[in-house]
Amino acid sequence: MANYPNNPIPSMVSAPEIIDPVFEYQVDSGYSVRRSRWSRPRHRWTLEYRGLKTQDMRQIRDFVHFARLSQLDFAWQHPTALDLVLVSPTTPVTVGGFHGLATGQWIILYSVPATPLPHMTGRAWQITRFDVLNLLVNDSVGQGIATNMYMQLYVPHMKIVAAEDSFPAPVTHRGPEQVRADLPYPGYYAYTVTLEELF
């Protein structure tokens, strides 16, 4: 599976939009019954790129071509949200800090210098929400002592949201699109990409 490019880094990543549709129907007694369509809410992010050089703009656009808008899914690591959290060596491992995540989402943990939990570093872990301050890292085994680590959101299945099956051209701040060494002013562009969690 492909990974969404984290280079160039977006100028801004929106806070996640929460998508949680419901089924609603009337019963014989005259009242409505409502229930969620999915087992947990899904999320949508908007990535804004400002002042991309021609080659950077092409890299994002080429990925959009590859993903065929919303036909092929891909993985994404949130490039601008890196939280410092307390990792406790319980079994399963407990991650402490205001997280805003739901059961079933994924994280990647990164070590800080001299972390005693190297086996946790650099891989994706699915989580279970314990409460607003604590997550349980599924299938993990604690060892060592409690330590601080960096936590990054990881979404293994994403799609690009495209209105009317098209992806608009970037906004040209300055042209041209061609990359030529003899041109004094390279192109600069603005892009907006909306990504939505699939499941």
Number of helices: 1
Number of domains: 1
Secondary structure class reads mainly beta
User: What value does the average pLDDT take?
Assistant: 87
Oligomeric assembly = single chain
Number of strands: 13
- What is the H-and-E element order? EEEEEHEEEEEEEE
Question: End-to-end distance, in Å?
Answer: 15 Å
Helix content: under 10%
Q: What is the percentage of strand-forming residues?
A: 35-45%
Based on CA atoms alone, the radius of gyration comes out at 21 Å
Unreliable segments of 5+ consecutive residues: none
**Outline type:** flat
Order of the strands making up the biggest sheet: 6-7-10-9-8-11
Largest beta-sheet details? 6 strands, antiparallel, barrel
Structure, described:
With 199 residues, the protein is mostly beta strands. It has one domain (12-197). The protein contains 1 helix and 13 strands. The chain has a 6-stranded antiparallel β-barrel with strand order 6-7-10-9-8-11. It has a two-stranded antiparallel sheet with strand order 3-4. The protein starts with 11 loop residues before the first strand and ends with a strand.
